[in-house]
Amino acid sequence: MPLIMVAMLTKFFGEKKSIKEGLAIWPYAIFAGLCFIIPYLSSALLLGPEFPNLIGSLIGLAILIPATRSGFLVPKQTWDFPERKLWDDNWNGSIIISGITSRNNHSLFKAWTPYILIGLILFLTRAKFLPFNGWIQSVKFVSPKLFGTNVVTDFDPLNIPGIMPFMMISLLCIPLFKMSVKQVASAWSEALIRLKGPFIALIFAVPMVRLMMQTGVNPNGYLSMPIAMANAMAGLFDEAWPLADPFIGALGAFMAGSNTVSNMLFALFQYSVAESLGISRFIVVSLQNIGGALGNMICVHNVIAACATVGLIGVEGLLIKHNLIPMTIAAIIAGSLGMILISVLGGGVF
């Protein structure tokens, strides 16, 4: 993935528009990937599924940054963006930093404090073996049955990362950095202005996704829209299903905006397909999970949020088009590896 990222960077943002420039960094890129994946897998095996992303990234950074500073595997030739006057219009965001009247000489540790606290709170509240996860999930608002059906929805305010810990830490930063009323007002007003564009899109996109998910609840017993689409694709691929498997996961994430929801939609279906084909359910469901993670690259919700963060509004379609390339490459690699494993191991893996 690091190598694909750099190749995409040089192709779409380099003066020569060349993938070859990006491939020159392959030893360092592979090393960067290993710095993440080795502690990621180790924590998954030793601690369980809750911590690989957090531990893999933190340990990976702790290894990669000192190695980079020492010049380990860093290419001698330096690549940079072209001159600013040659940039495309959609490279420039609309965010202008204003309202800063003075600079405080905060220590490096203090500057990192909000991020450290965010990571710590995420760990404490998501670790299943600690009581905090149960506490925050106990605060729940459940709707009555909707429109005479058995469909209900619930809302866990403290289990939403935007509230806990991000909003809490943002409030804590006010006294921590001794911000004035003017600075606080400027920060919050700018944040609200930047939320306007994504809010308009999401307020329609989220209900559309929920409707698609609930289309299976009907008096005629029709399949839901996502399952019907997945069934059609299964019929097309048959024994070559592992190649299509990650794309189903990506489709779910694209529609629902979440790998978790994608797995909720399709994991049982993937398991059933694997059972009917007599192949490893373990590998097939794993490929579904990989595809759901990759689908976050083209998820409308994520792209809108990312564009709003850097002040790029109106280029969402272009980003999704570009992101389809690395997503497709990674999904094909994952599916091919799944095919090889199934061919070699047969039904030997659950």
Notes on the structure:
With 350 residues, this protein is mainly α. It has three domains: 2-87, no CATH class; 108-179, no CATH class; 225-345, no CATH class. 67% of the residues lie in helices and 1% in strands. It has helices at residues 2-13, 19-23, 26-47, 52-69, 108-126, 132-138, 162-176, 181-213, 225-237, 241-256, 259-277, 281-295, 300-310, 316-345, and strands at residues 141-142, 154-155. It has a two-stranded antiparallel sheet. α8 (181-213) runs antiparallel to α13 (300-310) and α10 runs antiparallel to α14. The longest helix has 33 residues, at 181-213. The chain is globular and about 65 Å long. The model has no long low-confidence stretch (mean pLDDT 84).
Query: Which radius of gyration do the C-alpha atoms yield?
Result: 23 Å
Structural class: mainly alpha
Cross-sheet strand order for the largest sheet:
1-2
Number of helices: 14
Secondary structure topology:
Blueprint: H1 2-13, H2 19-23, H3 26-47, H4 52-69, H5 108-126, H6 132-138, E1 141-142, E2 154-155, H7 162-176, H8 181-213, H9 225-237, H10 241-256, H11 259-277, H12 281-295, H13 300-310, H14 316-345
Antiparallel strand pairs: 1-2
Helix pairs in contact: 3-4, 5-7, 8-13, 9-10, 9-11, 10-11, 10-12, 10-14, 11-12, 12-14
Q: What's the gist of this structure?
A:
This protein has 350 residues and is mainly alpha-helical. It is 67% helix and 1% strand.
List keywords for this structure.
350 residues; mainly alpha; 3 domains; two-stranded antiparallel sheet; 14 helices; 67% helix; globular
